[in-house]
Protein backbone atom coordinates (compact mmCIF):
# COMPACT_ATOMS: atom_id res chain seq x y z
CA UNK A 1 0.00 0.00 0.00
CA UNK A 2 1.22 3.49 -0.85
CA UNK A 3 0.94 4.78 2.72
CA UNK A 4 3.09 1.95 4.15
CA UNK A 5 5.68 2.21 1.38
CA UNK A 6 5.95 5.94 1.78
CA UNK A 7 6.23 5.76 5.56
CA UNK A 8 8.90 3.12 5.43
CA UNK A 9 11.06 4.28 2.54
CA UNK A 10 10.67 8.05 2.22
CA UNK A 11 12.04 10.48 4.80
CA UNK A 12 9.31 12.21 6.76
CA UNK A 13 9.74 15.88 5.84
CA UNK A 14 6.11 16.62 4.98
CA UNK A 15 2.80 16.00 6.70
CA UNK A 16 1.33 13.81 3.98
CA UNK A 17 -2.16 13.27 2.67
CA UNK A 18 -2.22 9.64 1.48
CA UNK A 19 -4.37 10.13 -1.59
CA UNK A 20 -3.08 8.31 -4.69
CA UNK A 21 -3.52 10.54 -7.74
CA UNK A 22 -3.47 8.68 -11.03
CA UNK A 23 -4.40 11.18 -13.70
CA UNK A 24 -4.81 14.90 -14.28
CA UNK A 25 -6.57 16.90 -16.97
CA UNK A 26 -6.00 20.66 -16.73
CA UNK A 27 -7.26 21.64 -13.22
CA UNK A 28 -8.94 18.30 -12.49
CA UNK A 29 -7.26 15.35 -10.78
CA UNK A 30 -8.46 11.76 -10.42
CA UNK A 31 -7.39 9.37 -7.66
CA UNK A 32 -7.18 5.56 -7.72
CA UNK A 33 -10.87 5.34 -6.70
CA UNK A 34 -11.89 7.51 -9.72
CA UNK A 35 -12.85 10.35 -7.38
CA UNK A 36 -12.21 13.74 -9.00
CA UNK A 37 -10.77 16.85 -7.40
CA UNK A 38 -10.56 20.44 -8.62
CA UNK A 39 -6.97 21.56 -8.18
CA UNK A 40 -6.71 25.08 -6.75
CA UNK A 41 -3.01 24.44 -5.88
CA UNK A 42 -1.35 23.50 -9.21
CA UNK A 43 1.30 21.68 -7.17
CA UNK A 44 2.10 24.95 -5.34
CA UNK A 45 2.12 27.15 -8.41
CA UNK A 46 4.05 24.74 -10.61
CA UNK A 47 1.61 23.21 -13.06
CA UNK A 48 0.96 26.58 -14.69
CA UNK A 49 -0.41 25.13 -17.95
CA UNK A 50 -2.50 22.43 -16.26
CA UNK A 51 -2.06 18.71 -15.65
CA UNK A 52 -1.49 16.39 -18.61
CA UNK A 53 -0.83 19.29 -20.98
CA UNK A 54 -0.60 17.57 -24.36
CA UNK A 55 1.59 20.17 -26.07
CA UNK A 56 4.15 20.13 -23.25
CA UNK A 57 4.05 16.32 -23.06
CA UNK A 58 4.63 16.00 -26.83
CA UNK A 59 7.51 18.50 -26.70
CA UNK A 60 9.15 16.60 -23.84
CA UNK A 61 8.69 13.23 -25.57
CA UNK A 62 10.21 14.46 -28.82
CA UNK A 63 13.13 16.00 -26.95
CA UNK A 64 13.95 13.00 -24.76
CA UNK A 65 13.72 10.68 -27.76
CA UNK A 66 16.71 12.65 -29.09
CA UNK A 67 18.81 14.14 -26.29
CA UNK A 68 17.86 14.53 -22.62
CA UNK A 69 21.16 15.79 -21.26
CA UNK A 70 24.69 16.57 -22.39
CA UNK A 71 26.12 18.92 -19.67
CA UNK A 72 26.88 22.61 -19.71
CA UNK A 73 30.32 22.01 -21.24
CA UNK A 74 28.51 22.25 -24.57
CA UNK A 75 26.10 24.89 -25.84
CA UNK A 76 22.46 23.77 -25.51
CA UNK A 77 20.12 25.18 -28.16
CA UNK A 78 16.82 25.13 -26.19
CA UNK A 79 18.68 26.72 -23.22
CA UNK A 80 19.95 29.61 -25.38
CA UNK A 81 16.48 30.04 -26.89
CA UNK A 82 14.89 30.05 -23.44
CA UNK A 83 17.33 32.74 -22.32
CA UNK A 84 16.36 34.82 -25.35
CA UNK A 85 12.65 34.27 -24.66
CA UNK A 86 13.02 35.35 -21.02
CA UNK A 87 14.85 38.53 -22.11
CA UNK A 88 12.16 39.31 -24.70
CA UNK A 89 9.18 38.64 -22.44
CA UNK A 90 10.71 40.51 -19.48
CA UNK A 91 11.45 43.49 -21.76
CA UNK A 92 14.81 43.81 -20.00
CA UNK A 93 18.40 43.62 -21.17
CA UNK A 94 19.21 40.42 -19.27
CA UNK A 95 20.99 37.08 -19.45
CA UNK A 96 20.09 33.96 -17.45
CA UNK A 97 21.74 31.17 -15.48
CA UNK A 98 19.60 28.03 -15.28
CA UNK A 99 19.28 25.98 -12.09
CA UNK A 100 16.92 23.21 -10.98
CA UNK A 101 14.85 24.85 -8.28
CA UNK A 102 13.86 28.10 -6.63
CA UNK A 103 16.27 27.79 -3.71
CA UNK A 104 19.13 27.15 -6.11
CA UNK A 105 18.13 30.16 -8.19
CA UNK A 106 18.22 32.31 -5.04
CA UNK A 107 21.63 30.85 -4.12
CA UNK A 108 22.85 31.96 -7.55
CA UNK A 109 21.38 35.43 -7.02
CA UNK A 110 23.13 35.74 -3.64
CA UNK A 111 26.42 34.61 -5.19
CA UNK A 112 26.13 37.30 -7.88
CA UNK A 113 25.41 39.89 -5.17
CA UNK A 114 28.37 38.75 -3.06
CA UNK A 115 30.76 38.96 -6.02
CA UNK A 116 29.34 42.35 -7.00
CA UNK A 117 29.99 43.51 -3.41
CA UNK A 118 33.48 42.06 -3.49
CA UNK A 119 34.48 43.71 -6.74
CA UNK A 120 32.56 47.00 -6.85
CA UNK A 121 33.19 48.31 -3.34
CA UNK A 122 36.53 48.87 -1.61
CA UNK A 123 35.17 47.46 1.64
CA UNK A 124 33.86 44.19 0.10
CA UNK A 125 30.18 44.57 0.87
CA UNK A 126 28.29 41.32 1.54
CA UNK A 127 25.11 41.96 3.55
CA UNK A 128 21.69 41.15 2.12
CA UNK A 129 18.52 42.59 3.62
CA UNK A 130 15.33 40.54 3.32
CA UNK A 131 11.86 40.86 4.85
CA UNK A 132 10.05 39.20 7.70
CA UNK A 133 7.42 36.70 6.50
CA UNK A 134 9.48 36.11 3.36
CA UNK A 135 10.34 32.72 1.93
CA UNK A 136 13.44 32.10 -0.16
CA UNK A 137 14.11 28.35 0.06
CA UNK A 138 15.40 25.42 2.08
CA UNK A 139 19.15 25.29 1.53
CA UNK A 140 21.28 26.44 4.48
CA UNK A 141 21.80 29.87 2.87
CA UNK A 142 18.28 30.47 1.58
CA UNK A 143 16.74 29.29 4.82
CA UNK A 144 18.86 31.97 6.53
CA UNK A 145 17.73 34.50 3.90
CA UNK A 146 14.14 33.63 4.80
CA UNK A 147 12.83 36.11 7.38
CA UNK A 148 11.00 33.68 9.62
CA UNK A 149 12.71 32.78 12.90
CA UNK A 150 10.85 29.45 12.98
CA UNK A 151 12.93 28.47 9.94
CA UNK A 152 16.27 29.18 11.68
CA UNK A 153 16.27 26.09 13.86
CA UNK A 154 19.43 25.60 15.94
CA UNK A 155 19.40 22.02 14.64
CA UNK A 156 20.96 23.23 11.42
CA UNK A 157 23.29 25.93 12.75
CA UNK A 158 25.71 27.54 12.07
CA UNK A 159 24.18 29.52 9.20
CA UNK A 160 26.02 31.87 6.83
CA UNK A 161 26.44 35.47 8.02
CA UNK A 162 25.19 38.56 6.34
CA UNK A 163 21.39 38.35 6.43
CA UNK A 164 19.08 40.69 8.31
CA UNK A 165 15.33 41.16 8.20
CA UNK A 166 13.01 44.14 8.15
CA UNK A 167 9.35 44.20 8.97
CA UNK A 168 8.26 46.67 6.30
CA UNK A 169 9.55 48.07 3.02
CA UNK A 170 9.87 51.47 4.76
CA UNK A 171 12.23 50.04 7.38
CA UNK A 172 14.76 48.96 4.74
CA UNK A 173 16.04 52.53 4.25
CA UNK A 174 17.23 52.73 7.86
CA UNK A 175 18.83 49.32 8.03
CA UNK A 176 21.07 49.80 5.00
CA UNK A 177 24.66 50.25 6.16
CA UNK A 178 27.99 50.56 4.35
CA UNK A 179 28.25 46.79 4.08
CA UNK A 180 24.82 46.27 2.46
CA UNK A 181 25.14 44.90 -1.05
CA UNK A 182 21.58 43.86 -1.88
CA UNK A 183 17.92 43.86 -0.88
CA UNK A 184 16.04 40.66 -1.72
CA UNK A 185 12.23 40.63 -1.62
CA UNK A 186 9.15 39.04 -3.12
CA UNK A 187 6.60 41.44 -4.65
CA UNK A 188 3.77 39.28 -3.37
CA UNK A 189 4.86 37.29 -0.34
CA UNK A 190 3.63 33.78 -1.13
CA UNK A 191 4.36 31.44 1.78
CA UNK A 192 4.16 34.47 4.10
CA UNK A 193 0.45 34.99 3.42
CA UNK A 194 -0.17 36.07 -0.22
CA UNK A 195 0.68 39.65 0.67
CA UNK A 196 1.34 42.07 -2.22
CA UNK A 197 3.37 45.23 -1.60
CA UNK A 198 2.30 48.67 -2.82
CA UNK A 199 3.57 49.51 -6.29
CA UNK A 200 4.65 53.05 -5.31
CA UNK A 201 6.62 51.77 -2.32
CA UNK A 202 8.47 49.25 -4.48
CA UNK A 203 9.18 51.79 -7.23
CA UNK A 204 10.54 54.26 -4.68
CA UNK A 205 12.75 51.57 -3.12
CA UNK A 206 14.03 50.49 -6.55
CA UNK A 207 14.93 54.08 -7.43
CA UNK A 208 16.69 54.62 -4.09
CA UNK A 209 18.73 51.41 -4.33
CA UNK A 210 19.79 52.17 -7.91
CA UNK A 211 21.11 55.56 -6.78
CA UNK A 212 23.14 53.89 -4.00
CA UNK A 213 24.48 51.15 -6.26
CA UNK A 214 22.82 48.52 -4.05
CA UNK A 215 21.32 45.55 -5.91
CA UNK A 216 17.61 44.83 -5.92
CA UNK A 217 16.90 41.10 -6.11
CA UNK A 218 13.29 40.14 -6.75
CA UNK A 219 12.40 36.57 -5.84
CA UNK A 220 9.81 35.67 -8.48
CA UNK A 221 9.98 31.94 -7.84
CA UNK A 222 6.24 32.02 -7.11
CA UNK A 223 5.09 35.23 -8.86
CA UNK A 224 6.93 34.66 -12.16
CA UNK A 225 5.67 33.02 -15.37
CA UNK A 226 2.38 34.96 -15.53
CA UNK A 227 1.12 34.06 -12.04
CA UNK A 228 0.20 37.70 -11.32
CA UNK A 229 -1.12 38.36 -14.84
CA UNK A 230 2.12 39.63 -16.43
CA UNK A 231 5.20 37.59 -17.40
CA UNK A 232 6.88 38.87 -14.24
CA UNK A 233 5.43 40.67 -11.25
CA UNK A 234 8.34 43.09 -11.89
CA UNK A 235 6.60 43.96 -15.18
CA UNK A 236 3.36 44.57 -13.32
CA UNK A 237 5.17 46.79 -10.80
CA UNK A 238 7.08 48.47 -13.66
CA UNK A 239 10.52 48.06 -12.11
CA UNK A 240 13.85 46.86 -13.55
CA UNK A 241 15.53 44.86 -10.78
CA UNK A 242 19.20 43.89 -10.97
CA UNK A 243 18.43 40.20 -10.43
CA UNK A 244 15.21 38.21 -10.76
CA UNK A 245 14.80 34.56 -9.82
CA UNK A 246 12.15 32.24 -11.24
CA UNK A 247 11.27 28.56 -10.84
CA UNK A 248 7.86 27.15 -9.90
CA UNK A 249 5.61 27.82 -12.92
CA UNK A 250 8.41 28.03 -15.49
CA UNK A 251 8.67 24.36 -16.45
CA UNK A 252 5.01 23.36 -16.03
CA UNK A 253 6.16 20.60 -13.62
CA UNK A 254 9.63 19.89 -14.97
CA UNK A 255 12.18 21.12 -12.38
CA UNK A 256 13.87 24.33 -13.51
CA UNK A 257 15.07 27.56 -11.93
CA UNK A 258 16.44 30.76 -13.43
CA UNK A 259 18.70 33.56 -12.23
CA UNK A 260 18.04 36.49 -14.54
CA UNK A 261 20.27 39.55 -14.36
CA UNK A 262 21.19 42.78 -16.08
CA UNK A 263 24.74 42.31 -14.69
CA UNK A 264 25.86 39.93 -17.41
CA UNK A 265 29.60 40.05 -16.69
CA UNK A 266 29.84 39.38 -12.96
CA UNK A 267 29.98 35.61 -13.27
CA UNK A 268 32.99 34.29 -15.15
CA UNK A 269 33.67 30.67 -16.12
CA UNK A 270 34.19 28.69 -12.92
CA UNK A 271 32.19 31.02 -10.65
CA UNK A 272 29.00 28.98 -10.70
CA UNK A 273 27.57 25.86 -12.24
CA UNK A 274 25.04 23.05 -12.18
CA UNK A 275 25.18 19.55 -13.61
CA UNK A 276 21.50 19.37 -14.53
CA UNK A 277 20.65 23.08 -14.79
CA UNK A 278 19.33 24.16 -18.16
CA UNK A 279 19.49 20.74 -19.81
CA UNK A 280 17.57 19.77 -22.96
CA UNK A 281 14.66 18.27 -21.04
CA UNK A 282 13.89 21.20 -18.73
CA UNK A 283 14.57 24.03 -21.16
CA UNK A 284 12.57 22.51 -24.03
CA UNK A 285 9.65 22.08 -21.61
CA UNK A 286 9.99 25.68 -20.36
CA UNK A 287 10.15 27.06 -23.92
CA UNK A 288 6.85 25.35 -24.67
CA UNK A 289 5.27 26.49 -21.38
CA UNK A 290 6.22 30.12 -22.09
CA UNK A 291 4.93 29.90 -25.69
CA UNK A 292 1.60 28.58 -24.44
CA UNK A 293 1.31 31.23 -21.72
CA UNK A 294 2.45 34.08 -23.99
CA UNK A 295 -0.32 33.16 -26.48
CA UNK A 296 -2.80 32.73 -23.66
CA UNK A 297 -1.96 36.21 -22.34
CA UNK A 298 -2.03 37.86 -25.78
CA UNK A 299 -5.40 36.31 -26.64
CA UNK A 300 -6.91 38.00 -23.55
CA UNK A 301 -7.79 34.64 -21.98
CA UNK A 302 -5.45 34.96 -19.01
CA UNK A 303 -7.00 38.29 -18.01
CA UNK A 304 -10.50 36.84 -18.48
CA UNK A 305 -9.63 33.89 -16.24
CA UNK A 306 -8.18 36.18 -13.57
CA UNK A 307 -11.32 38.35 -13.59
CA UNK A 308 -13.67 35.36 -13.48
CA UNK A 309 -11.72 33.63 -10.70
CA UNK A 310 -11.72 36.85 -8.68
CA UNK A 311 -15.47 37.26 -9.16
CA UNK A 312 -16.16 33.78 -7.76
CA UNK A 313 -13.65 34.33 -4.94
CA UNK A 314 -15.34 37.62 -4.01
CA UNK A 315 -18.73 35.84 -3.88
CA UNK A 316 -17.30 33.15 -1.61
CA UNK A 317 -15.70 35.79 0.60
CA UNK A 318 -18.89 37.87 0.89
CA UNK A 319 -21.03 34.81 1.64
CA UNK A 320 -18.71 33.72 4.44
CA UNK A 321 -17.73 36.83 6.39
CA UNK A 322 -18.18 34.75 9.55
CA UNK A 323 -15.07 32.80 8.49
CA UNK A 324 -12.99 35.18 6.35
CA UNK A 325 -11.68 38.60 7.34
CA UNK A 326 -9.96 39.74 4.14
CA UNK A 327 -9.35 38.90 0.48
CA UNK A 328 -5.73 39.26 -0.67
CA UNK A 329 -3.41 38.61 -3.59
CA UNK A 330 -2.92 39.40 -7.27
CA UNK A 331 -3.71 37.62 -10.53
CA UNK A 332 -4.13 33.90 -9.90
CA UNK A 333 -2.18 34.08 -6.65
CA UNK A 334 -5.01 34.65 -4.20
CA UNK A 335 -5.78 34.25 -0.55
CA UNK A 336 -8.54 34.59 2.00
CA UNK A 337 -7.57 35.48 5.54
CA UNK A 338 -9.30 33.10 7.93
CA UNK A 339 -10.43 34.42 11.33
CA UNK A 340 -8.15 31.93 13.13
CA UNK A 341 -5.67 29.15 12.43
CA UNK A 342 -7.93 26.44 13.92
CA UNK A 343 -10.67 27.21 11.42
CA UNK A 344 -8.18 27.12 8.55
CA UNK A 345 -6.92 23.75 9.81
CA UNK A 346 -10.50 22.47 9.42
CA UNK A 347 -11.15 24.01 6.00
CA UNK A 348 -8.30 22.27 4.16
CA UNK A 349 -9.23 18.61 4.91
CA UNK A 350 -12.96 19.32 4.59
CA UNK A 351 -12.38 20.91 1.17
CA UNK A 352 -10.38 17.82 0.21
CA UNK A 353 -13.32 15.57 1.20
CA UNK A 354 -15.60 17.74 -0.92
CA UNK A 355 -13.18 17.36 -3.86
CA UNK A 356 -11.22 20.60 -4.04
CA UNK A 357 -7.51 21.05 -3.24
CA UNK A 358 -6.48 24.25 -1.46
CA UNK A 359 -3.34 25.47 0.33
CA UNK A 360 -2.34 27.26 3.48
CA UNK A 361 0.00 30.27 3.65
CA UNK A 362 1.35 31.97 6.76
CA UNK A 363 -0.61 31.34 9.95
CA UNK A 364 -4.13 31.97 8.78
CA UNK A 365 -4.38 32.41 5.01
CA UNK A 366 -6.26 30.05 2.72
CA UNK A 367 -4.18 30.18 -0.47
CA UNK A 368 -5.43 29.52 -3.99
CA UNK A 369 -2.96 28.95 -6.86
CA UNK A 370 -4.94 27.30 -9.67
CA UNK A 371 -3.37 26.37 -13.01
CA UNK A 372 -3.42 29.55 -15.12
CA UNK A 373 -5.32 27.60 -17.80
CA UNK A 374 -8.15 26.56 -15.43
CA UNK A 375 -11.52 26.53 -17.25
CA UNK A 376 -14.67 28.43 -16.24
CA UNK A 377 -16.39 25.10 -15.49
CA UNK A 378 -13.52 24.04 -13.22
CA UNK A 379 -13.63 27.41 -11.43
CA UNK A 380 -17.40 27.08 -10.90
CA UNK A 381 -17.11 23.52 -9.65
CA UNK A 382 -14.15 24.30 -7.38
CA UNK A 383 -15.92 27.22 -5.69
CA UNK A 384 -19.12 25.18 -5.34
CA UNK A 385 -17.17 22.46 -3.52
CA UNK A 386 -15.34 25.01 -1.39
CA UNK A 387 -18.69 26.59 -0.40
CA UNK A 388 -19.96 23.10 0.55
CA UNK A 389 -16.90 22.58 2.72
CA UNK A 390 -17.43 25.92 4.49
CA UNK A 391 -21.08 25.08 5.10
CA UNK A 392 -19.99 21.83 6.75
CA UNK A 393 -17.58 23.42 9.20
CA UNK A 394 -19.62 26.48 10.22
C1 LIG B 1 8.83 28.01 -3.45
C2 LIG B 1 9.65 29.21 -3.26
C3 LIG B 1 11.06 29.14 -3.15
C4 LIG B 1 11.79 27.81 -3.09
O1 LIG B 1 11.69 27.12 -4.29
P1 LIG B 1 12.15 25.55 -4.34
O2 LIG B 1 11.98 25.19 -5.80
O3 LIG B 1 11.24 24.81 -3.42
O4 LIG B 1 13.56 25.49 -3.90
C5 LIG B 1 11.76 30.31 -3.06
N1 LIG B 1 11.15 31.51 -3.07
C6 LIG B 1 9.82 31.63 -3.19
C7 LIG B 1 9.19 32.99 -3.23
C8 LIG B 1 9.02 30.49 -3.28
O5 LIG B 1 7.69 30.60 -3.36
Describe this structure in words.
By secondary structure, this protein is an alpha/beta fold. The chain has two domains: 23-52 and 299-393, Aspartate Aminotransferase, domain 1 (Alpha-Beta Complex), CATH 3.90.1150; 56-296, Aspartate Aminotransferase, domain 2. It has helices at residues 2-9, 42-45, 54-66, 77-90, 102-120, 140-145, 169-175, 199-212, 233-236, 280-298, 301-319, 341-354, 376-393; strands at 21-25, 28-31, 36-39, 95-99, 127-131, 163-166, 180-185, 188-189, 195-196, 215-219, 243-246, 257-261, 324-330, 333-338, 356-357, 359-361, 365-368. The radius of gyration is 21 Å and the shape is globular. The two termini are 35 Å apart. Pyridoxal-5'-phosphate is lined by residues 101-103, 106, 135-137, 186, 190-191, 219, 221-222, 247-248.
Beta-strand share of residues: 15-25%
N-to-C series of helices and strands? HEEEHHHEHEHEHEEEHEHEEHHEEHEEEH
- CATH architectural grouping of the largest domain: 3-Layer(aba) Sandwich
Q: In terms of structural class, how would the helical and strand content be classed?
A: alpha/beta
Shape: globular
Q: SSE layout and pairings?
A:
Layout: H1 2-9, E1 21-25, E2 28-31, E3 36-39, H2 42-45, H3 54-66, H4 77-90, E4 95-99, H5 102-120, E5 127-131, H6 140-145, E6 163-166, H7 169-175, E7 180-185, E8 188-189, E9 195-196, H8 199-212, E10 215-219, H9 233-236, E11 243-246, E12 257-261, H10 280-298, H11 301-319, E13 324-330, E14 333-338, H12 341-354, E15 356-357, E16 359-361, E17 365-368, H13 376-393
The structure holds pyridoxal-5'-phosphate.
